[in-house]
Amino acid sequence: MHFDAANLLPILPEIAVLLTAAIVLVVDLYIDERHREVIHGLTLIGLVVAIALTGVVGGGATELVFAGNVVRDPLADLLKGAILVVSLLVFIYARPWLRDRGMLVGEFYMLGLFSILGMLVMVAANSFVTVYLGLELLALSLYALVAFDRDSSRGAEAAMKYFVLGALGSGMLLYGISMVYGATGSVEFGAVAEALATQGMENKVLVFGLVFMVIGIGFKFGAVPFHMWLPDVYEGAPTPVVLLLGSAPKIAAFGLAIRLLVDGLGSLQADWQGMLLILAVLSIGLGNVVAIAQRNIKRMLAYSTISHVGFIFLGLLAGTEQGYAAAMFYTITYAVMATGAFGILIILSRKGFDAERIEDLKGLNERDSWYAAMMALVMFSMAGVPPLVGFMGKLLVLEAVVRIGFVWLAVVAVIFSIIGAFYYLRVVRYIYFDKPEEDAPALASSGGVRVAMSLNGLALLALGVFPATLLALCQSVFGA
Amino acid sequence: MENVYLTIVLAPLVGAIVAGFFGGRIGRVGAHSVTIAGVGLSTLLSLWVLGRFIWADEPVFDGAVYTWLVSDGMRFEVGFLVDKLTAMMMATVTFVSLMVHIYTIGYMADDAHNWPEGALTGRNSYQRFFSYISLFTFSMLMLVMANNFMQLFFGWEAVGLVSYLLIGFWSTRDSATFAGLKAFLVNRVGDFGFLLGIAAVAMYFGTLDYAEVFAAAPGLAGTEVALFGGVSLMTLVCVLLFIGAMGKSAQVPFHVWLPDSMEGPTPISALIHAATMVTAGIFMVARMSPLYELSEVALSFVLIVGATTAFFMGLVGLVQNDIKRVVAYSTLSQLGYMVTALGASAYAAGVFHLMTHAFFKALLFLAAGSVIIAVHHNQDIRQMGGIRKYMPITWLTALIGSLALIGFPGFSGFFSKDAIIAAVNQTELFGGGYAALLLTLGVLVTALYSFRMYFLVFHGKPRMDDHTREHLHETPKVVTIPLVMLAIPSVFIGWFAIEPMLINDWFASGDWSPIMVAPEHDTLAHLREHWHGQGAFVMHALGTPTLMLALGGLVFAALVWWAIAARKPDIDAKLLALGGPLTRLLQNKYGFDDFNQRFLAGGARLLGQTFWNRGDQTLIDDGMVNGSARSVGRMAGVLRLLQTGYLYHYAIAMIVGLVGLMTIFVTL
Fold it and tell me: Across-strand partners of B79?
């Protein structure tokens, strides 16, 4: 293959992340036990540099590099930026938890960085092969991270389930890709789309491939009925890993869906619309209802994720520019919400104790009223209460669905959201109206965490009141 | 200029936020410093802007600052429209607000005494108060500077909210919370009409932007709305908007909240319930003059409501014994004058009176507050008297305020009120004669109640208890300086402003004219044609019945409550007794409160009780809510069992999903 240095320019953010991972790996080998925190600093610097580079190389016309396998377009720019910013928050929140348990080691950072690299590759992919490459890099890193706490049998069990099911999901995706390759003779999105446009829809192999691909996407998002791994993994994995797993990868999954379904198989929209419809209704319904029965807050948030995925699918299945933009807005803001929720759980945890039951949030207001307010913002936002951003996201998605004439679908979604509001508000009730448990100590947290959490919580409010900027960005990506 | 306007609006908001959220940390001095700095900056910039408009021919600014959202082609924006009308309002609002801020330092100095021992709500009340009045300034500026109906509504509701918070400021007093609630509820009724008016504008004009609406208005003047057998669109919109104004500007029958609002601390009575917020309705109608000019029905309605308020509310002021309530009824009456002017299409005169009234009524309220401080928060004028000797500055400024209020020749109130009466005399609308008669008689009433209060408070023998009298002395400088600062415009502003504002069509700049008057409605034309300068205006007034009435009232008041009262202290009570049923009618305030309390409040409670018992508890709570909650809970309990924890179950679920999708999409 002809190598051109100009190829490297659009992937500078990826290179920065990769370099950081490599540096972390080496430094970790030689560094003294007492100075482990240096790794943390290096990681943050690497991410900030990557964010800056995303800004520098971003913007402008679409560029195809590496023989059309990688693309740099507004979609990639925005998703990369969001992934990196959310990941930055993740590492900031994770540090105290890791430090308290003596787990602040290079592996966490290295694996975390590789998973981020995987996400970046996914959203910048322009061929099925690149997408799969990024996806597997992300997934393999996450499998290992879930089992990161070696002494925890629950963690090992969760990792095992995740790995087996993940392999199944990836296998199906790959199988679907192979069928589409068979039918169109290409793995590059542009060529596939062109081939589809000329040969039409008659080919049943294509629909076969499409079903497998949708299942792969559904698995990565955690849509019903491919959601089974989600609650068990959320419950079993260490909280910082859940934080990493539950936030940025959703953005990457959105990128995956857009790349595969819209860029690649856009002309099959009529087919995948129906598939996503089924997954969306099942996810919104089951996620919201079963979350009510959960006593473990991580499991509850897992089911909450499932229901939010349903909403993201609503925007996607609309199949309009407006719908994609709404889904993107929803995904990015959801990632910010999820980061805040798990961030609070980490703050509530301490050495030898993990906040896992909903009861652990009791009387948070008396223990620390600021964090209580932030958690309340997150919960209200997830429930979709105006003027928080969760409401805006839901509104936009529902508007897109109504625009294509699926009023009944919007009604169903709203009814289940109302049911879902119950378990979010229950958390708020525990925070404000219950007394803390006797032995609950004061919350110790460093200034950095407090600043990050404040920004995180207030961002939900700010984006809800002033959604125009982010929304305009999302719309410009799809030219709506 | 956009940055200047933004600064004017945001500086008080910043002050409010700092004093409100960090009041405990920055302390009392910090709180009043930061809010006064914010409002002071706004005042300076507003005066500068006004100066630019007067002397430098500043162009009109009409632009969006932020687009909140766009829905179906309708833009919801934050934007400013700054023309001469706005500039005048900005200067008035910020100046009075600044004076009130300074005055509050003295008035609220020992606010701790107003709260029960150890009350949590009383903590940092001083800082909170400053935060509220700064927030009010921000809201009022948003209202007057709006360039679209949405922002107007935002400001409208925001000032209402702050008004509610401040009326009920002493929240441990039942009467205060009651008054706050009353103000809030009455305003809700008015605001509902207002909101419907805005909705009608949005529906028929398809935009909320002032300039676009005004431009489209003549084209839609003939539109009929199928409502009550067909009414003109303009009438509908104008009457609905005016219902909002009736609530905010306390016009009959929505006036009931204003006298009760005197439960709030006096500085806000001056700022909100005299000088600024209650005049929002006047400003709004003047701003909407291009719409009102297209509906004579609406103008007649405005005219009649205004005149009724002006006269009959003034009468009630005659029998009040609470110093603040007298001033409150006077405010109602004066608002009635302004509204009548609007109804007669003399928008400029209405706005002119708004401005002069802002100064002298704020002055009167603050002077009343100064007296209240001195006599240890007793507000009954029957227990005052002879205060002149002890408080010379308060006395003198109160005298100036009273003279301005009754329209004594040369004082600011004289010019504005005479202009209104002259204009109303010219109107040919339905109800014009009624309005002209009531306004002229109202002058007598104004003179009577103003000077009854004045003489009872400042002259005659001291009637307070000995302890109070011994401690009677002039209030501190932070109180008296604002009095003096307000007294100056109360005397002079009328003389200087009448010519540009009423005669020379100053409001128009270039081809933009905020106040639009149809030629056939131009009631100020008469005044304009016969204009020979301020001096001639004063001289001409000397022979009119209006002035005779004012002076007659003044002389009568002096005779009764000064000369005779010196020998017979019970003359006031005797006079009231003489009135018999009329006095009782006035003391009952025509029974509005009783009617509202019995029928509206009682009826609403009965209705609510019924719905609550039958509908809410039985049907909804027991049946629907608890019923569906139980079934959702059961469903959740069953569905969670799907999550068995076994890996092969999960894999099976995926395969089932795969097969399901296959079956549906491949075979179909």
Answer: B64
Distance CA A397, CA A326 (A): 5
State the best of B71, B644, B654 to mutate against chain A, taking most chain A CBs within 10 Å. Answer: B654
Measured between alpha carbons, how far is residue B74 from residues A56, B195, B201, B284 in Å? 36, 16, 12, 22
| Residue A43, strand partner residues | none
Q: Which two tokens stand for residue A66?
A: 């590496």
**A345-348 long-range Cβ contacts below 8 angstroms, 24+ apart:** A345/A239, A345/A297, A345/A298, A346/A93, A346/A94, A346/A96, A346/A97, A346/A239, A346/A240, A346/A243, A347/A93, A347/A96, A347/A371, A347/A443, A347/A445, A347/A449, A347/A453, A348/A443
| pLDDT (tens digit per residue) in B322-364 | 999 999 999 999 999 999 999 999 999 999 999 999 999 999 9
B557 — alpha (psi -120 to 50), left (phi > 0) or beta?
alpha
Q: Return the structure tokens found at A458.
A: 């207030």
Q: Say which residue the tokens 């909407």 belong to.
A: B288
Q: What are the CA-CA distances from residue A145 to residues A142, A254, A259, B386 (Å)?
A: 5, 22, 26, 86
Amino acid at B593: D
Q: Does B662 touch chain A (CB under 8 A)?
A: yes
Helix (H) or strand (E) holding B95: helix B84-107
Q: In this predicted structure, what is the pLDDT of residue B224?
A: 86
At residue A439, the pLDDT reads 74
Q: What is the mean pLDDT of chain A?
A: 91
CB contact under 8 A, B654 and A204: no
DSSP state of B153: H
Measure in Å the smallest separation between the Cα of B666 and chain A Cα atoms: 6
Asked if B665's CB is within 8 angstroms of A271's CB, the reply is yes
**pLDDT tens figures, A200-241:** 666 788 888 899 999 999 999 999 889 999 999 999 999 999
Partner residue opposite A215 with nearest CB, options B67, B651, B661: B661
With CA atoms as reference, the chain B residue closest to A276 would be: B661
3-state percent breakdown (helix, strand, coil) of chain B, nearest 5 = 75, 5, 20
- Phi-psi region at A370: left, alpha or beta (left = phi > 0; alpha = psi -120 to 50): alpha
User: Band of the pLDDT at A174, cuts 50, 70, 90?
Assistant: very high
What is the share, in percent, of chain B residues with pLDDT greater than 70? Answer: 100
Question: Which residue spans within B177-317 are E strands per DSSP?
Answer: 224-225, 231-232
pLDDT digits (tens, 9 = 90+) for A433-475: 988 887 777 777 777 889 999 999 999 999 999 898 899 999 9
Confidence of residue A266 (pLDDT cuts 50, 70, 90): confident
For helices B125-145 and B149-167, the axis angle rounded to 10 degrees is 160
Q: Is B72 on the interface with A (CB under 8 A)?
A: no
pLDDT band of residue B227 (cuts 50, 70, 90) is confident
According to DSSP, the residues that pair with A99 across neighbouring strands are none
**Which residues, 6 or more positions from B72, have their beta carbon under 8 angstroms from its beta carbon?**
none
> Which residue matches tokens 């652990």?
A360
Using a CB–CB cutoff of 8 Å, tell me whether A211 touches chain B. yes
Strands B74-82 and B61-71: antiparallel
What's at B384, amino acid-wise?
Answer: M
Distance of alpha carbon B505 from alpha carbon B515, whole angstroms: 9
pLDDT above 90: percentage of residues in chain B:
55
The stretch B228-255 carries a mean pLDDT of 91
pLDDT at A1: 53
Q: Check the CA dihedral A47-A51-A56-A62 and report its sign.
A: positive
Mean pLDDT over the full length of chain B? 90
Cα A328 to Cα A79: distance, rounded to the nearest angstrom: 9
Banded model confidence at residue B88, pLDDT cuts 50, 70, 90: very high
